[in-house]
Amino acid sequence: MASDQWTSRIGFILAAAGSAIGLGTVWRLPYVAGTEGGGAFFLIFLILLLTLGSTLLLAEFVLGRRTQEGAIRAYKNVASNGNWHWIGILGMVTAFLLLSFYSVVGGWIIAYLVRSFSGQVTSPPGGDYSALFETITANPWEVGIAHLAFMVMTILVVQRGIRKGIEKATVYMMPALFILFAVLVVRSLTLDGAWEGVVFFLQPDLSAVSGQTLLTALGQAFFSLSLGVSVMVTYSSYLGKSENLPRSAWSVVYLTILIAFMAGLVIFPSVFAFDLEPDEGPMLIFTILPAVFGEITFGSIFFTLFMILMLFATLTSAFSLVEIVVAPLIRGKEEQKRVKMTWTVGLLIFVLGIPSNLSFGLLSDWHIFGDIFFNQLDFLVSNILLPIGALLISLFVPWKMSKTDLQEELLRGSNRGNSFFSMWLFTIRYIVPIAIVVVFISMLAG
Q1: Which ranges does the record mark as transmembrane (predicted)?
Q2: What domains can be seen in the chain, in order of their start residue?
Q3: Angstrom distance (rounded) from CA 91 to CA 76
Q4: Beta-sheet pairing, 371-372 with 367-368
């Protein structure tokens, strides 16, 4: 039974939305949309997020709140016989590995943020922004210290627990994130030539849609909601029984959509205003955006604001990834063990992240199956472990939990009726697993 709980519904929603938003929405979604054709991809992404993504999110909420347990124990609570608890263990391992390289990107953001205060980022020597990125990531001391700083920030919040740590931090960070985004959206939309970027982002060209577009959009929908790692199982285990789960799930989905929409309106109008290419890929915010901000009035200030925004988004996701690993290890002895265990887990994640951090410098020639360590670990987590975790959860919740328990927990505190429950149950039992299998096979084949 969870002894630490969210003090308010808004605290839970902001923390869950913070976990969901993170780099998956602010960093990954714009460059994926850029490479997949813009408007058509974004439209399909929204449809899948509102249907299949919200269905799986609600399944994790139901499991966590019903059992009041996080990863491992939630699955044992429902199915004491068998090996279903390995879903929780898989989630912990996935979160551990994911944060090991995710925190490296967080370190890059800190390194860029520090340099942005002196104007170095928007005015690099010779105007070569790609060379600047290579210089920063190839410096083991700069990225190493920044990486450690990011993990220490994460640890200092998580060690204080749900109420005093994660909830308190996200209640301030998330509104600040929205305000910063609003400022940057206004600046981006007032650039000459910005409208072309808006059209690219929001006007669907359905003739450009392919099977790969559909599959990529579905994968992004799950990625953007932090699904498949049991993060939302853990977070909802701290939720009171009186809360309306469908309303909370929809609130998280709507906030994710809002941030995705705002991220696109910051990035694409800026890119098109300066005749740059939107399909730059993962390095979009580190090589293209500095060039954009370097050409506008007070660009250095706006880029610093953007990096602060990115740091907030990255940290709110990191909180949840550490919490899912720490929570099962301290359950029942939270007050005695939380601080020590949080530091232990956080520093171990930092150590595991060192090879990823050096992949662009000292270890750039060390290839595993033809690619650097960072990219291979990213592929393992994003294309293999996350889809497997999502699939197992989509099978466990509707088939191992009793229909009575599912209905009672889903509708508790809600004014929704049995027809809503029946539709949700059918979707999570049949449509979501099939969709995940199709995405998983396609990714492996590709």
Answers
A1: 12-29, 41-63, 84-114, 141-158, 170-190, 221-240, 252-276, 296-329, 341-360, 380-399, 420-445
A2: 9-445 (1.20.1740)
A3: 14
A4: antiparallel
For residues 61 and 227, the answer to whether their CB atoms sit within 8 Å is no
Cα separation, 88 vs 70, whole angstroms = 8
User: Quick one: residue 193, left, alpha or beta (phi over 0 = left, psi -120 to 50 = alpha)?
Assistant: left
CA trace torsion 362, 365, 368, 370 (10° rounding) = 150
Do residues 26 and 104 make contact, with C-beta atoms less than 8 angstroms apart?
Answer: no
Token pair belonging to 287 = 């090589």
Q: What tokens were used for 93? A: 């391992």
Q: Where are the alpha helices (DSSP H) in 117-210?
A: 129-137, 140-158, 161, 168-189, 194-202
Q: How many residues does the chain have?
A: 446
Which residues 6+ apart lie within 8 Å of 440 measured at CB?
A: 383, 384, 387, 388, 391
State the DSSP string of 58-95.
HHHHHHHHHHT--TTHHHHHH--SSSTTHHHHHHHHHH
Per DSSP, which regions of 269-393 are E strands? 367-368, 371-372
Residue in 41, 26, 353 with CA at minimum distance from that of residue 363:
353
| Strands, E assignment, 303-379 | 367-368, 371-372
Q: Which residues of 7-45 are buried (b: 16+ CB within 10 A; e: fewer)?
A: eebebbbbbbbbbbbbbbbbbbbbbbbbbbbbbbbbbbb
Residue 86 C-alpha from the chain's centroid: 22
In the predicted structure, residue 397 carries a pLDDT above the cut 80: yes
Amino acid of residue 167 = E
* Nearest Cα residue to 162 out of 95, 57, 238: 238
Helix residue ranges, H only, 190-244: 194-202, 211-224, 231-236
**pLDDT tens-digit map of 28-60:** 777 778 877 788 889 999 998 999 999 999 999
Q: What's residue 426's pLDDT?
A: 96
